[in-house]
Amino acid sequence: MKGKLYLIPTTLGDDGVDAVIPAEVKNIISRLDIFIVENIRSARRYIRKVDAEKSIDGLTFFVLNKHTDKGQFPEFLAPLKKGRDVGLITEAGVPGIADPGEDIVRMAHKQEIRVVPLVGPSSVTLALMGSGLNGQHFAFNGYLPIQSNERIKKLKMLEKRSQQENQTQIFMETPYRNNQLLKDILEHCRDRTLLCIASNITLENEKIQTKTIKEWRKAVPDLNKQPAIFLLHSS
Fold first, then answer.
1. What pLDDT, in 10s, does the model give residues 21-46?
2. From edge to edge, which strands make up the β-sheet containing 60-63?
3. Cβ(105)–Cβ(6) under 8 Å?
4. Interhelix angle for 178-188 vs 148-165, to 10°?
């Protein structure tokens, strides 16, 4: 019998594990010895926070990030084919959503390995829940273009799509570029378009606030180096 590939959620920052990670997830982490991880150092630290008594040195880690050659995937899945359960851990939140994981999960499906997604914090879904914007029809667009002219073009396209389809547009940026993205939103989107900024989700300084573009211009927040999700809705 083949093992199971568990998709393991992690905290979104330095918040306590007990506050956001269910007990069953912690139990699964405690019994696993093989992990596919985005970063070994942070994964070891997270596992230690979950189970301080677990022997970290006895664990096996495979690294999965944007630099990983897909030719290594069969090696990652080999223990599963031998009946061993494996956990997939990314840097923050849940694997496969704004984080690596979909390729290895897809290959697991092709090899008829059972994939088990576990409950945990996702900044994308939590931001949408707290935004007050359309949660019945929405699109997650990931990261917008780095070049300013391309980013502005993309923003205008998303705003138009939102208006035409009554669809909430969700996107994000690398924390140190948040302020530039916000500047472009406030300069190029319409006054009445709604913007939700959800920053530091699940942390003590969490802030989720929805205003019109016109209202945001009156008091522009400093989002530099703060993890944030942006949600746009135009009507």
1. 999 999 999 999 999 999 999 999 99
2. 60-63, 34-37, 86-89, 4-8, 114-117
3. no
4. 60
Is the pLDDT at 15 greater than 80, yes or no? no
Over 174-231, what HEC string results? CHHHHHHHHHHHHHHCCCCCEEEEEECCCCCCCEEEEEEHHHHHHCCCCCCCCCEEEE
Which backbone phi and psi does 166 adopt, to 5 degrees? 50, 50
pLDDT digits (tens, 9 = 90+) for 103-161: 999 999 999 999 999 999 999 999 999 999 999 999 999 999 999 999 999 999 999 99
Confidence of residue 66 (pLDDT cuts 50, 70, 90): confident
What global pTM score does this model have? Answer: 0.90
Q: Is the pLDDT of residue 58 over 80?
A: yes
Q: Give one DSSP letter per residue of 62-93, joined into a string.
A: EE-STT--GGGHHHHHHHHHTT--EEEE-SSB
CA distance 13 to 101: 19
Find, among 157, 209, 218, 161, the residue nearest to 186 by Cα: 218
What is the torsion angle, in degrees rounded to the nearest 10, for the CA atoms of residue 47, residue 99, residue 13 and residue 203?
Answer: -130
Residue 99 has a pLDDT of: 78
Residues 202-206: contacts with CB under 8 Å, at least 24 apart: 202/11, 202/12, 202/13, 202/15, 202/19, 202/20, 202/121, 202/126, 203/12, 203/13, 203/14, 203/15, 204/15
